[in-house]
Amino acid sequence: MLLELEELHVHYGAIAALKGVSVSIDEGEIVTLLGANGAGKTTTLKTVSGLRPITSGRVVFQGQDLAGIPAHRRVQMGISQAPEGRGIFPGMTVVENLEMGAYARAGAKLDAEFDRVFQLFPRLAERRKQAGGTLSGGEQQMLAIGRALMAQPKVLLLDEPSLGLAPMLVKQIFDIITEINQQGTTILLVEQNAAQALQRAHRAYVLETGRIVRSDDAAVLLNDDSVKAAYLGGEIS
Fold first, then answer.
1. Is the same domain home to 52 and 158?
2. How many CA within 13 A on the CB side of residue 92?
3. What confidence tens digit (pLDDT) does each residue in 14-45 have?
4. Domain closes at, from 152, 183, 205
């Protein structure tokens, strides 16, 4: 098992955001978390990244309990996140943004990582000297994912990668996510576009108000009537 979340409880003050969440991810999988706004999906990713403290429970990565390990060390260990809202540095060029993704690898040669990102996202190669803030929404999403890949992650955390994108770009982003996984990177995906997420993932968990209420192979949930009604508008698109 590459990553395990064991009975996670996380609070924001007196408010319980996660109430005993347990998730397991094998090496090479795409696992998706589904749920409505406020269900606890982003909190789950932030907890794995070390950006939210745990009230109780454990995050175990490659057999090691991550308790007490700060966020920057988790990046060095192989956990990297592309956050919701992209979070790029608007005044920096594409290349400078990508270099920031490799900050934990000071002194390392980055040629192979730049080659990988530019092969996955040719548009970024064309705009390598352009300021991040002048890119389109889709290009900024590509940059956010590319920046996370610069850290050579063993597991890539993606938070709403299709948010705000046109349908054609949504398919393109998911095609690239699938390719990243096929290249050997494990992915934990949070995504409101449940149809695309379930079509690409191996397994899925459904979160409701901080609790896991369903888990199964993604193909099973994709054809489940209750999941269709709740998250797919009654049909697959």
1. yes
2. 15
3. 999 999 999 999 999 999 999 988 999 999 99
4. 152
